[in-house]
TrEMBL record:
<dbReference type="Pfam" id="PF00199">
    <property type="entry name" value="Catalase"/>
</dbReference>
<keyword id="KW-0349">Heme</keyword>
<dbReference type="InterPro" id="IPR020835">
    <property type="entry name" value="Catalase_sf"/>
</dbReference>
<dbReference type="InterPro" id="IPR018028">
    <property type="entry name" value="Catalase"/>
</dbReference>
<dbReference type="InterPro" id="IPR011614">
    <property type="entry name" value="Catalase_core"/>
</dbReference>
<dbReference type="Pfam" id="PF06628">
    <property type="entry name" value="Catalase-rel"/>
</dbReference>
<feature type="binding site" description="axial binding residue">
    <location>
        <position position="341"/>
    </location>
    <ligand>
        <name>heme</name>
    </ligand>
</feature>
<feature type="domain" description="Catalase core">
    <location>
        <begin position="11"/>
        <end position="395"/>
    </location>
</feature>
<dbReference type="InterPro" id="IPR040333">
    <property type="entry name" value="Catalase_3"/>
</dbReference>
<feature type="region of interest" description="Disordered">
    <location>
        <begin position="1"/>
        <end position="28"/>
    </location>
</feature>
<comment type="similarity">
    <text>Belongs to the catalase family.</text>
</comment>
<keyword id="KW-0560">Oxidoreductase</keyword>
<feature type="active site">
    <location>
        <position position="131"/>
    </location>
</feature>
<protein>
    <recommendedName>
        <fullName>catalase</fullName>
        <ecNumber>1.11.1.6</ecNumber>
    </recommendedName>
</protein>
<dbReference type="GO" id="GO:0004096">
    <property type="term" value="F:catalase activity"/>
</dbReference>
<dbReference type="GO" id="GO:0042542">
    <property type="term" value="P:response to hydrogen peroxide"/>
</dbReference>
<dbReference type="GO" id="GO:0005737">
    <property type="term" value="C:cytoplasm"/>
</dbReference>
Length: 496
């Protein structure tokens, strides 16, 4: 008779109690092992399968659960249920990350930081997969893989390569704005609590009258901005490669819950057609003077996941996950990401990854997807597995349909993303430099000089000169400071 109340017995994965867990079955105390010790096999075999593919980018990360609370009424812009009324609370998950490093790399590297939010709303999970920067390096998704290769390891040396990075950036001046932010002190934030987050992309809002607005999301840290200097960040990489993970975990464990204010910039559809900056260009910001920040609510992180692998490694965020009242925009990068993330997650976690508890919608899901590896939710039971059918009452709700959208053109083609009118790569990074106080300007210059000093090989001067021209175009003082730091003679008349 088994004692079923006694749950403290060590068992195999199939529930058989272990009689022994430290010595393998052998022929004689000093003899070889027996093939029949299936517990040994199970332990070794499961261990061999512990690793899953790390994220192809943003592999190193930290996350916490929390709550989003609405503080201001924005229902004139969106009917999304999450914003339904002031005071409404929604459970959420926020994962921070670095971009280029592997899962075991230091989280104080100079790199943008990921800022990926999952809101568990009644209309499904809404994911906002942003960064701590309002812009990005490229403006067409076809360029993403090439760009990321330059941030990873050189195929020959297996090391990071400043030459690859600056070669790419110098050949793609659309990257200048983001590179300027990356090289500023904001490229080395003091952990994850002291930085802002951005949707970066433009999304759309749809209100209950079916009117569309364009929107950018901002998350302003209530802890205040705090950055490492370059030297401090470099030192921290060896002192504590998990500094940001530790800082987040310890603060939440101690009840010091980090918070961010969600704010939005809103543009009407009519304005989007005439605004002097392409509102769907991810390398540009919408100046706050034209589109001031409006308050929406606050997020608070207040619970560390009990198990990192379960809730963080297996978390799957996707820009495709929008909900009623929130839609996409024509931003080409966003359009590319709609496809890329679920595709990556089917590879990384398997076809049924949405059933993993951290990804599962806590309200309900209904569909006719069946089977596949690791199907663990009952697989629809006896219910019909096709649509339409005469047996169940599952329906499509047409009230969720977005209003029709008039597009700018009906001519398909490969348009030059940097054609006339789309090729000002310099004004906004120049403005950024001019906005910095002198000490920050000096840091920016010395960080760029330090990073560009790593360029080597036969194309060194070609790459340096090409990139220097971009810095000069952004601001002659910036260009001159960098040239001087690199020991390159420039005619001082260029400053006049
Ligand atoms: C076309 C451009 C892009 C492509 C194709 C792309 C692709 C990817 C892929 C495949 C992943 C791994 C997903 C996973 O395995 O779960 C990822 C992660 C991520 N990406 Fe992108 N990405 C792009 C641009 C961006 C931009 C512009 C941002 C920010 C504004 C961004 C922010 C992130 C973040 C935060 C993560 C980590 C999400 C997490 O914490 O799990 N990406 N990206």
């Amino acid at each position: 008779m088994k004692d079923l109340d006694n749950h403290n017995k060590l068992t195999t994965a199939s529930g058989t109690p272990y009689a022994q867990n430290e010595d393998s079955k052998s022929v004689g105390s000093r003899g070889p092992l027996l093939l029949e010790d299936f517990i040994l096999h199970e332990k070794m075999a499961h261990f061999n399968r512990e690793r899953i593919p790390e994220r192809v980018v943003h592999a190193k990360g930290s996350a916490a659960f929390g709550t989003f609370t609405v503080t201001h009424d924005i229902t004139k812009y969106t009917k999304a249920k999450i914003f339904l009324e002031v005071g409404k609370k929604t459970d959420m998950l926020l994962r921070f990350s670095t971009v280029g490093g592997e899962k075991g790399s230091a989280d104080t590297e100079r790199d943008p930081r990921g800022f990926a939010l999952k809101f568990y709303t009644e209309d499904g999970n809404w994911d906002l997969v942003g960064n701590n920067t309002p812009v990005f390096f490229v403006k067409d998704p076809k360029k993403f893989g090439d760009f990321i290769h330059t941030q990873k390891r050189d195929p020959y040396t297996n090391m990071k390569s400043a030459t690859m990075m600056w070669d790419f950036w110098s050949l793609n001046p659309e990257s200048l704005h983001q590179v300027a932010i990356l090289m500023s002190d904001r490229g080395t934030p003091y952990g994850y609590r002291h930085m802002h987050g951005f949707s970066s992309h433009t999304f759309s809002f749809i209100n209950s009258a079916n009117e569309r607005f364009y929107v950018k999301f901002h998350f302003l840290t209530k802890q205040g901005i705090k950055n490492f200097t370059d030297a401090e960040a470099v030192a921290m990489k060896s002192q504590d490669p998990d500094f940001a993970q530790r800082d987040l975990l310890d603060n939440i464990d101690a009840g010091n819950f980090p918070r961010w204010d969600m704010k939005i910039q809103v543009m009407t559809e009519a304005e989007s057609r005439t605004y002097h900056i392409n509102p769907f260009d991810l390398t540009k910001v919408w100046p706050h003077a034209d589109y001031p920040l409006m308050e929406v609510g606050t997020i608070e992180l207040n619970r560390n996941p009990d198990n990192y692998f379960q809730d963080v490694e297996q978390a799957a965020f996707a820009p495709a996950h929008v909900v009623d009242g929130i839609g996409f925009s024509p931003d080409k990068m966003l359009q590319g990401r709609i496809l890329s993330y679920p595709d990556a997650q089917r590879y990384r976690l398997g076809a049924n990854y949405e059933q993993i508890p951290v990804n599962r919608c806590p309200y309900f899901t209904n569909n006719y997807q069946r089977d596949g590896q690791m199907r663990v939710d009952g697989n629809g039971g006896k219910n019909p597995n096709y649509f339409p059918n005469s047996f169940d009452n599952i329906t499509v709700d047409a009230s969720y349909k977005e209003p029709a959208q008039e597009l700018e053109s009906n001519v398909a083609g490969w348009y030059d993303r940097n054609a006339e009118g789309e090729n000002d790569h310099y004004t906004q990074p120049g403005n950024l430099f001019r906005l910095l106080v002198p000490e920050q300007q000096q840091h920016l210059i010395s960080n760029i000089v330090g990073a560009m000093s790593g360029i080597d090989g036969p194309k060194r001067m070609e790459i340096i000169n090409r990139q220097l021209c971009h810095w000069f175009r952004a601001d002659p003082r910036l260009g001159m400071g960098i040239a001087q730091g690199l020991g390159i003679q420039i005619d001082p008349n260029m400053l006049q």
